[in-house]
Amino acid sequence: MSVTIHIPVMLRHECGGHSKLSVSATSIRHALEELAKGHPAVYRSVCNETGVVRRHVHLFINSSLVTDDGLDTKLKPNDELFIMPAVSGG
Amino acid sequence: MAERLVLCIGTKKGLFIAEAAKTRRRFELRGPFGPGVPVYSSLIDTRGTPRIFASSCNPFFGMKIMVSTDLGKNFKETKSAPAFPKSDGRALENIWSIEPGKGKRELLCGVEPASLFRSGDGGNSWEMVPGISNHEHAQHWQPGNGGLCMHTIVRDGNRVHLGISTGGHYLSEDGGATFDAANNGVGAGFFPDPNPEFGQCVHKIATHPDVPGRLYMQNHGGWPERPGIGVLRSDDHGHSWHSIADGLPSDFGFPIVVHPHDPDTIYVVPLDPSTRTCPDSKPAVWRSQNGGGKWKRLANGFPKRDSYFTVLRDAMTIDSLKSPALYFGTTTGRLWIGRDGGEEWTCLFDSLPPINCVKVAVV
Question: b/e per residue, B171-204, with b = 16+ CB within 10 A?
Answer without folding.
Answer: bbbeebeebbbbbebbbbbeeeeeebebbbbbbb
